[in-house]
Amino acid sequence: MVNALNISAVAPDPALFDLPWDLPLEDWPQEVVAALPRGISRHVVRFVKLSGSVLAVKEIADYAAKREYDLLKELANLSAPSVAPIAVVSGRRTAKGQPLDSALLTQHLRFSLPYRALFSYRLRPDMATRLLDALALLIVQMHLLGFYWGDVSLSNTLFRRDATEFAAYMVDAETGALHTKLSDGQREYDIELARTNVIGELMDLEAGSMLEEDLDPVAVGDLLVERYQQLWRALTEEETISADARWRLQDRINRLNGLGFDVAEMSMQTDPDGTTLHIRPQVVDAGHHSRRLFRLTGLDVQENQARRLLNDLDTYRVHSDQTDVDESFVAHDWLTHVFEPAVRSVPRDLRGKLELPQIYHEILEHRWFMSQRESRYVPLEEAVKSYIDTVLTHRRDESELILADTLQLPIQDDIQMG
Amino acid sequence: MATVTFEDATRIYPGNPKPAVDHLNLHIEDGEFLVLVGPSGCGKSTSLRMLAGLEEVNDGRILIGERDVTDVQPKDRDIAMVFQNYALYPHMTVADNMGFALKIAGMPKDQIRKRVEEAAKILDLEEYLARKPKALSGGQRQRVAMGRAIVRQPRVFLMDEPLSNLDAKLRVSTRTQIASLQRRLGVTTVYVTHDQTEALTMGDRIAVLKDGLLQQVGSPLVLYDKPANAFVATFIGSPAMNIGTFPVKDGEVLLGESKVPLSRAVLDAMTPEDENKLTVGFRPENLEAATAQTPGSFPVEIDIVEELGSDAYAYGTLKGSDPATTGLQGGSLIARVDPRAVPRKGETVYFTVREGEQHNFSASTGDRLPD
Ligand SMILES: Nc1ncnc2c1ncn2[C@@H]1O[C@H](COP(=O)(O)OP(=O)(O)OP(=O)(O)O)[C@@H](O)[C@H]1O
Ligand SMILES: Nc1ncnc2c1ncn2[C@@H]1O[C@H](COP(=O)(O)OP(=O)(O)OP(=O)(O)O)[C@@H](O)[C@H]1O
Ligand SMILES: [Mg+2]
Ligand SMILES: [Mg+2]
User: Fold this and answer.
1) Which of A174, A199, A204 is closest, CB to CB, to B104?
2) B318 to chain A, closest Cα gap in Å
3) Residue B328 has pLDDT above 90, yes or no
4) B195-240: per-residue pLDDT in tens?
5) Mean per-residue pLDDT for B325-352?
6) Cys-Cys crosslink for B150: which of A94, A194, B119, B360, Cβ 3.0 to 4.6 Å?
7) What is the DSSP secondary structure assignment for residue A19, as one 8-state letter?
């Protein structure tokens, strides 16, 4: 019956045909599935290793699979922070000819951590807030693109370490829709649903004794709404400035850059009498720092990692007495003499533990910590060595966090309906 | 309990001059189950969100009961939106899974308890309240999800494609559960779906939307038997109604090689804009086997026959009609045939439309013409 199988894929890989499509996903043998942790979901979702990478497979009605696949493709074209679609497999049948639901395949996001795995770490107390900031930023980014999500939740979000913060990515686009611009009602509904879902998910962790005692789910949910609204306002609000204080225009742009956004288009209007100016950002793009770092060095890293690296670059510029040298030359110097030697000295077998830019960030943290403790200047090489020996070697592998590491998590309890 | 009224309700999204919902007039009775149905983009979700207070109303107004709620905040409208997606939380008991929205709203514990117990009784989940969702069957989990909306005791339920994410089997069983539950609770319900089967099986009345415009509202039977226009005629019913536009000559419509006489009422209702053409529709089950001699019969060449046990459908081409100018939408004709005497592929068979089962629509406007 395999002959009737129909696969649409963005990058066709013949190995896709080797997966046991004639079995319900639930019954896929252990040899093919990779035991990675996942969020709560109603559909059956499994991870598989294929041609050296890991894919997520979701079993779902054909109509919904194709819709979500198309939507994820559109989002990828817009460079949205979402998982990348790989393929839809339809026309599945069992060996006996019984029809099976279609499968949607997405790229497993490397180094991503589902929130349930994050809560199993002994993390700093403000972790919940940092996750929420990341989620609020993600929702804002999606809304700026005109994407109505329809089901924002922690389960439908993946988190990646991003320097001291987290970066959030969307996984589940099933209920979403893309418009040119969202209405306020669409945004409000999304954010209200986000609040309800997040509170529910935290209450669930609470019921499973996985939440810090003093964390109040409702307060956290309210904070999400607040952070979202603050950010949305900062990015889209009209500001009225007096015509002789035009520096405030640059000030607004700087503030948006500080929040990690570039202003691609700003509308400016003067009053008829010419004394006041109304300014409003029209098009803003997230990723100000990561774009800047990429331009300077070709390094493609997440926003907060980029901030950190740019700071390091600035420090290097001052220390190496190159403040009057063109920034792009200094950047090249820094890359070849500082960044690359440091990350190259990380042994290959330890590189899967964290993303390389994240490792570099941790090296800088470690160096700062060492020099505080020992009250002296610590050369980078020394910090690298100490970091590898005392920190990195003891960390667990996060590239594809394996289930065995999170056994205390009742991930097997995840409910699948439908 | 309450009625719901849309009065010329209109929504125009910024940057999109075409109204998403265009002067919608609809009155929903207290306790009624009304289904809003139509193809993707027709404005169903927008209408529902306007009622929920989540979308601005640019023109017209919306009433719940006697009260104009056009400018009332969503939370003060006393409605419950049943989310398309719901996750059951594995560590929380069934009772907590049902009551958590009330807890978020800050309702006192004993009151939540009471409401959850009432809902559990209705849903036949009483003995499971202390258990975890894992212990429940698929159907019971569905009911817990419904319980979440019931405990809020709203005056109106709003449901936006609540079944779209379920597999075919669960969808059918949940459909019946929701419909019977709604009838027992008697709470006014507005239900949105793109699936006409769902609409026909669940609704007391169905409102069909297209391009933001209400096409028809009525009971499933009325929509099925007396579709107000050609769009409703083809949208409602599965397999879809055969419909096509054919020339009219000397008081007869030319269906391929055959001539079918038309009533005076139909002929009188035709206008110059129709250019002597008529849009004719007939349902697959209203075709009768006939012979070449039967008056009004037309020959059909059979392409394939689909046998479904109790039913069989023949797909074929209407002979003698010119597909370039007139003819059947989709090119082929579908007829229900006797499953014990199915025609062969390639065979030519004759059909007539059962007496009184031919639907006539204006070729220019698509509106139904008097019988
Ligand atoms: N590409 C991916 N990379 C990493 N994890 C993934 C990926 N796709 C899915 N997952 C994991 O699988 C889980 C379930 O996937 P998904 O949310 O798409 O399923 P669902 O059944 O549609 O969920 P819901 O019940 O919210 O509708 C996610 O929470 C996530 O943890
Ligand atoms: N924010 C928006 N901006 C512009 N147009 C929009 C916006 N949101 C929806 N629309 C348009 O309004 C129309 C009605 O949309 P709506 O979502 O109500 O349709 P629907 O019938 O529910 O469709 P579906 O079944 O696909 O959800 C569509 O043409 C849609 O593209
Ligand atoms: Mg999900
Ligand atoms: Mg989903």
Assistant:
1) A199
2) 31
3) no
4) 999 999 999 999 999 999 999 999 999 999 999 999 999 999 999 9
5) 88
6) B119
7) S
Q: Which domain holds residue A33?
A: 2-107
Q: How many domains does chain A have?
A: 3
Which among B92, B100, B138 has CB closest to A417? Answer: B138
For residue B171, give the H/E element and its range. Answer: helix B168-185
> Each residue of A129-165: pLDDT tens digit?
888 999 999 999 999 999 999 999 999 999 998 988 8
**CA angle, residues B38, B39, B44, in degrees to nearest 5:** 50
- Residue A56 Cβ contacting ligand 1 at under 6 Å: yes
- What average pLDDT does the segment B52-61 reach? 95
Per CB-CB distance under 8 Å, the chain B contacts of A410 are 90-91
To test the contact with chain B by mutation, choose from A71, A148, A183, A225 the residue with the greatest count of B C-beta atoms within 10 A, namely A183
The answer to whether residue A201 neighbours chain B at the CB level (below 8 Å) is: yes
Residues 6+ apart with CB under 8 A from A311: none
Interface of chain B toward chain A, CB-CB under 8 angstroms: 13-16, 49, 54-56, 83-85, 87-93, 96, 100-101, 103-104, 132-134, 138, 141-142, 164-168, 170
Closest CA to B274 of B173, B366, B145, B147: B366
> What band does A105 get if pLDDT is binned at 50, 70 and 90?
very high
What residues of chain B lie within 8 A of the CB of A60, using their CB? Answer: 165
**Calpha distance A216→A203 (Å, rounded):** 9
Neighbours of B220 (CB within 10 A): 18
pTM to 2 decimals?
Answer: 0.86
Q: For residues B30 and B37, what is the distance between their CA atoms, to the nearest angstrom?
A: 20
Residues A79 and A162 occupy one common structural domain: no
> Does residue A64 sit within a domain?
yes
A10 part of a folded domain: yes
Asked if ipTM goes beyond 0.95, one says no
How far apart CA B226 and CA B219 sit, in angstroms, is 10
Distance CA B197, CA B309 (A): 20
Based on the fold, state whether residues A73 and A180 are members of the same structural domain. no
- For position A40, which CATH number holds? 3.30.200
Name the residue facing A183 among B13, B84, B104 (closest C-beta). B13
- Ligand 1 atom closest to the Cα of residue B87 is 25
Mutate-to-test residue for ligand 1 from A55, A105, A158, highest number of ligand atoms within 8 A of CB: A158
Q: Do A116 and A213 sit in the same domain of this protein?
A: yes
